[in-house]
Amino acid sequence: MIPRIAEVxxxxxxxxxxxxALKAAGFDGELAPDYANRTVLATDNSIYQVxxxxxxxxxxxxxxxxxxxxxxxxxxxxxxxxxxxxxTGTNGQSLTxxxxxxxxxxxxxxxxxxxxxxxxxxxxxxxxDQLNAALKEHGYFFAPELSTSNRATIGGMINTDxxxxxxxxxxxxxxxxxxxxxxxLDGERLDSGPLSETELDALKQxxxxxGAIHRTVDDVHQRRRDDIEARFPKLNRCLTGYDLAHIRNxxxxxxxxxxxxxxxxxxxxxxxxxxxxxxxxxxxxxxxVRYDSFETSLRDAQTLMQAQPTSxxxxxxxxLGLAKNDISWNGVAEFFPAAEGEVVEGIxxxxxxxxxxxxxxxxxxxxxxxxxxxxxxxxxCNGYTVARGSAAVGRIWGMRKRAVGLLGNAQGEARPxxxxxxxxxxxxxxxxxxMDFRAVLDREGLTYGMFGHVDAxxxxxxxALDMKDEASLARVRLITDEVVKLVQKYGGLLWGEHGKxxxxxxxxxxxxxxxxxxxxxxxxxxxHNQLNPGKIATADASQALxxxxxxxxxxxxxxxxxxxxxxxxxxxxxxxxxxxCYNYDPNDAMCPSxxxxxxxxxxxxxxxxxLREWIRALGEQGVNTLDVANAQRQRSGWxxxxxRLKNSWALKRGDYDFSQEVYDSMAGCLACKSCSxxxxxxxxxxxxxxxxxxxxxxxxxRPLKDYFIGTLEFVIxxxxxxxxxxxxxxxxxxxxxxxxxxxxxxxxxxxxxxxxHLASLMRHLNIGWAKPKQLAALSExxxxxxxxxxxxxxxxxxxxxxxxxxxxxxxQLGFRVWVMPYRANGKPLHVHxxxxxxxxxxxxxxxxxxxxxxxxxxxVGVDPSMTLAYRSEYRKYLEGDLPEVLLMQEFLGQRLExxxxxRPLFRPGRVQLLGHCTEKTNAAASMADWQRVFEALGQELTxxxxxxxxxxxxxxxxSRNRATSERIYDLSWRDVVANEPxxxxxxxxxxxxxxxxxxxxxxxxxxxxxxxxxxxxx
Length: 1018
Description:
The protein contains 47 helices and 29 strands. By secondary structure, the protein is of the alpha/beta class. A hairpin with a 5-residue loop joins strand 8 (about 175-185) and strand 9 (about 190). Helix 23 packs antiparallel against helix 26, helix 26 (about 660-665) packs across helix 28 (about 685-695) and helix 36 crosses helix 47 (about 1005-1015). The longest helix has 24 residues, at about 210-230. The N and C termini lie far apart (about 70 Å).
């Protein structure tokens, strides 16, 4: 079962030779011609998939100068180079069948911030939110606001001349670019900015590409200024790329930046930018206006603009409905009430910002007075709410930002996809344009979602198509052609925000006889059409622009995936490339392995791409993964041992198998499940990773660590008994054992068994074992105050005192506590792909839980990760009912009145909670339960904003992961633990407390241990 990868072609041979030449010339970054890197960067956030020949990761500008200078030589003039930033483009701008030049991995430094003059200088790979986080302490921000701001790079924003929310006030990226540094195709570095006539004349005389560029661009302006004035529409978004209308800026200066902004890497590699930054408004508010008709919301937006807001954004009922099932809804639901029977088909989010609170309130009053005066009249809003303050406003904008990804989280095979989604028309024409647009989609019988920037005349429209269906590509062409006509009818543009990319074929019809001037500019920068060819303009008439139905789509490739494989790996295949997992924020839980490595193969999107390609390659051999998985479950592992040994030896000998590249990606996953909680599409890496490992180890031998980790839960009760406990702990402390574990089993270490035994602590507290008969015999009053604690291996045997303290506190809170006899949870089996064994464990636990649940007493777990396995992993492998096992805070949060009555027992206290990743992302609402529980007992608990601790079960104990585990910890946890009083920090996860102790020698308490310490002495 080896996925076949095509043999090396002559074209690939040439690219491999170029890579070798680049290496020999002293390229300092990484060179990656491997299939995994190529596959991961073959997609962006569009419908297209184009396999590059290689990926290179420059470390600095000198690397780029080396790569371009080499490519410009005669022998390498067939080499194609295309820049890549965050990969968030919806039009395939960064996709290429040449070499992808990824500037985000290394060239991502903020070089300088000048707060006095209000500017920042950054490298191209800096992420927008990264820059704004650094600017915030100076009171500034970089204005263009994007829904993808947590992963979009500044270089990508410049290359697409990006804009978004608030563009009517703040403009586009181009409006904030003061200077650029660009590496040209001949290897020279060009610094551009506004020029005086003297400076321009001097540069026109310069040798090489620099002189040719300035001569050509100035000549276009001199000859065609009147035609340009007549052709270019007067829109807020105007045309992105080669902006002839702004060759001269408002001051009359020649400014090459306006040609480079939006050029999509077709003219050179932008490596640095000096950016204008703005003061952060001190006050902000959002007026959230509800409508019973989406058309009404669109038409009313133009009237709302008369109230002079900062921006107006619109979402339709489809997007709003999806948001209600998303992790972001918990923080915004209060601002979107709907009276009984009220129909909400559209929402306008009207933002006001100001440096003076009275000015802000005056703006809000201008709007709300109008809304109140027209309330109840036909064609007006249903009602509104006002959110004040940056925290509330930020939560709502966060929900709106996620709308892009949320649209892809539909049911069924037809999913909303971007291909005509960023049209721009004069705002006064938007409602009529959209009504006509909707008529086209309705005629085709398509569902769709809409959201966007109505103040700027831009609305994002994503029709739902099953791109695996051959007829879908024809509909892409049909709908696009009709939308082009509509855009022209209403005086707009096809590309109002997200660049041209694959849709460049329509450029000549929009530019008319000015298109040859674009070709002249392209030719001056890129005489041999090597830089992202086919986008925006070609160097001459003999070279073709890309055509939307001539570029391979993901759907076309997905057709070769067997239906059974598609269904078997549904947790992966629906990934639409939105890239939410590339979140740069070190204090966000999303995908710690990506943050710790900056390797896109180590991200949910990367893993989904590799898995999809793997099952596709197998499908071409007539193999479907579902049948193979079922066969492996029925076959004894011992019977396949000789074949697995032979295959493993061949792999060690150097035989190629793409499966190994997929395995390397999957092995780096922490199985923290942040992806499944935070990804708008709910891509679940731990689930499809487990299925892959199950299949992979049907062909190859497992590392010894897998057996050690998988069986530890089962043997730990025996090991915890004397004298085995002393022997186990003694061996684990011994240096020879550590050496053997590392070399032989791939484990750095293993946690030590606690000196206390839980049964002894239970006897001391007079707590009994939870058995169905005893529980059934309880009176109704006893049941009402009872709780059954469900054990897990990590806390019961490695952190026993914590469990004892929790049991004691629950008693002090008035509960009668029972403890379920220890049973293995099985989560480590699932994590490592022992799916047959995991299913059997889950089935046994199901019977035991059902028996206990008959008494009607809540079942409550201690460790979040292990507890949440019962409501996620278990439910995927079981048939029939499974009682819910509550998190500790969920159980206590249902009994706030009882807790409040005990407040006098506690002295006031304040603490910060470092939440567990799985808990924060897969049971987000429960984090507020902790705050309510503490408040009921007279305590103050705040949720400390940290990312992943880097442990995640046994991940940090494994040799191959130790370095990455520590890097992840250093991203957010180390400084918090080092700089905050230890007694003021608590952590719910055993893994988190263990990691803190391992890496900093600090013992953090569980939240309930903190509460126990707050009880006043009687």
